């Protein structure tokens, strides 16, 4: 869900409750059959298979299905163990999965309604980057950007990367 889709959620919920689900089902199936022209599937498979799926534990995934049985079998991504078993790329060295510690100032941005990369994960990144600042933007999803209510936080950050930013909006928390 991206930032533009967030505002449509109530209307979609009403449609689904009232039985008007056909257009949403069609949209999902059309998407499956059309593919995603915004990504190179070969590159996506290679990166996910060598860096992510190679280090996933199928037994742990099975345990997660016991905790959340209503999600059992639901794909968490469009790249999975079955695809990677066919794709046959070499796993990255284990060191690639280790967090990088850096004192270089960095600006991190998170949307508070991102279903895939919640602010929790951005906070984990921030732990290894002590001079970073985290923007948590209200009602934004994946790839939330760095401008909020007319203020460009990238510009403010680049003007003085070591200075603590101050939120100019009720829609932004800076950590």
Explain what the structure shows.
This protein is of the alpha+beta class. It has eight helices and five strands, in the order ααααααβαβββαβ. It has helices at residues 3-6, 9-17, 22-34, 41-52, 58-67, 81-87, 119-127, 153-159, and strands at 106-111, 132-137, 147-148, 151-152, 172-174. The strands form two sheets. It has a three-stranded mixed beta sheet, with helices on one face. Strands 3-4 form a two-stranded antiparallel ribbon. Strand 3 (147-148) and strand 4 form a beta hairpin. Helix 4 packs across helix 6. The longest helix is centred in the first third of the chain and has 13 residues, at 22-34. It is globular and about 45 Å long. The model has no long low-confidence stretch (mean pLDDT 88).
Which sequence of strands runs across the widest sheet?
1-2-5
Give the SSE string.
HHHHHHEHEEEHE
Q: How many individual helices?
A: 8
Proportion of beta-strand residues: 5-15%
Mind describing the biggest β-sheet?
3 strands, mixed
Helix fraction, binned, reads: 40-55%
Over the alpha carbons, how many angstroms does the gyration radius reach?
Answer: 20 Å
Mean pLDDT: 88
Distance between the amino and carboxyl termini: 23 Å
Which spans of ≥5 residues are poorly predicted at pLDDT below 50?
Answer: none
Decide which structural class fits the backbone.
alpha+beta
Spatial shape: globular
Strands, total number: 5
């Amino acid at each position: 869900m991206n930032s533009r889709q967030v505002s449509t959620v109530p209307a979609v919920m009403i449609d689904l409750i009232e039985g008007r689900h056909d257009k949403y089902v069609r949209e999902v199936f059309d998407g499956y059959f059309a593919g995603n022209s915004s990504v190179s599937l070969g590159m996506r498979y290679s990166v996910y298979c060598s860096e992510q799926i190679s280090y996933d534990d199928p037994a742990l995934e099975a345990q997660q299905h016991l905790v959340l049985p209503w999600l059992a079998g639901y794909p968490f991504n469009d790249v999975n163990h079955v695809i990677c078993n066919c794709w046959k790329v070499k796993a990255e060295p284990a060191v690639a999965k280790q967090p990088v510690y850096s004192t270089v100032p960095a600006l991190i941005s998170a949307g508070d309604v991102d279903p895939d990369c919640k602010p929790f994960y951005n906070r984990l990144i921030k732990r290894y980057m002590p001079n970073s600042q985290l923007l948590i933007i209200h009602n934004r999803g994946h790839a939330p950007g760095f401008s909020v209510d007319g203020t460009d936080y990238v510009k403010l950050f680049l003007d003085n990367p070591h200075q603590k930013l101050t939120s100019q909006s009720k829609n932004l928390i800076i950590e």
